[in-house]
From TrEMBL:
Compartment(s) where it occurs, according to its Swiss-Prot or TrEMBL record: Cytoplasm
Gene expressing this chain: argB
Biological process annotations from GO: L-arginine biosynthetic process via ornithine
The protein's name: Acetylglutamate kinase
The keyword Flavoprotein is assigned to this record: no
Amino acid sequence: MLKALEKAGILVEALPYIKKFSGKTVVIKYGGAAMVNDQLKEAVIMDVILMKLVGIHPVVVHGGGPEINGMLDRLGLKSHFIQGLRVTDEATMEVVEMVLAGKVNKEIVALIQRFGGKAVGLCGKDGGLIQAKKRFELVKNEAGARVPTDIGFVGDVVKIEPGLVRELADRGYIPVIAPIGVGENGESYNINADTAAGELAQALEAHKLVLLTDVEGILRDRQDKASLISSLRIDDVPALVEEGVISGGMIPKVTCCVEALQGGVGQTHIIDGRLPHSLLLEVFTDKGIGTMVLK
Ligand SMILES: Nc1ncnc2c1ncn2[C@@H]1O[C@H](COP(=O)(O)OP(=O)(O)O)[C@@H](O)[C@H]1O
Ligand SMILES: CC(=O)N[C@@H](CCC(=O)OP(=O)(O)O)C(=O)O
C-alpha cells in the first residue's frame, strides 16, 4: 500500500506535465497486440479518460491486426504480410473494414463511455477524414533492387481533413479513429494503424504521438529486454532497418515516428502497452519508458 505522502508525491510529480500538456493534442496509437485482455484494455482507456479530464486532447487511433487475423481465419481466408503490411485483396478488405470500423472501433467507444468518458468513433471515410490512394510497396527483388509491388487495397494517405476531429475534441469528446482510408471513387483502403496515427498527428499538429505496442520499445536484440534503445535519433533509423535490427511490424512504427517528427510533431514514443498504465507513466511522470524517437 502506498503511504499518503507517496500518493501526494505522485500527484505533485504530475503537475508540471498537466500544465505543459493542457490544451495540447496527444495522438495515441492503440495496437491490436496491446489489446490482448480486458484488464489491459480498461487500464489504457482509463489513462485516456484521465488525460481528457485534466485538459489534454487525446485522440485514439486504433489497430486490430490480431482481430482481423482471427476473423480471416474463421472465414478460411489466409493472412499474408509484406514488410509488416497486410496484402489486402477485395475479400480481405471487406473483412478489415468490418472488423476495424465495425467491431474494434465501437468496442473502444463503448468502453470509454462505460468508464465515464465521452467518445465518438470514426473511420477515415467519415467526413473524408483520411483520403487515400493505392500504395505500391518498395520490395527488394532477387537482384537486391527495390521495386514497387502491388499489395492490393493498401493505402497511402493523400490528405487528412482534421476539422471534424478538432471539433469533437473541443466539445469534450475523445475521437476514436479506425485506419480505413477512402479513395477518389469512395473505395476503401486498408492503412496501417501506425501510419494513420502518424499522419493524423501531423495534421492535428499534435504535441505528442505515442504508439502502444506489445514489446518494451525498440530492442537491439529482440531476445534481450535489457537491450532496449531508450532514445533513437532519426538519422540512425535507416541503418537499423538495413541491418535487420528493426523489422516486421516495427518498420511502419519507426517510419511513422520519423515522418511525424519531420512533419512538426513535438515528441514520438514507442511504449509497452502490456504494462498497465504505461501511457500515464509516459505522459505524467519523470520516468521515461520505452523508446523515444527524436530528431
Ligand atoms: N527491434 C525490434 N524491437 C522490438 N520489436 C521488434 C523489433 N523489430 C521487430 N519487432 C517486432 O515488432 C512487433 C510490433 O509490431 P506489431 O506486431 O505490428 O505491433 P502492433 O500490433 O502493436 O502494431 C513486435 O512484437 C516485434 O515482434
Ligand atoms: C495495411 C495493414 O497492414 N493494415 C493493418 C491495419 C490494422 C493494424 O495496423 O493493426 P495493428 O496496429 O494491431 O497491427 C492490418 O490489416 O492489420
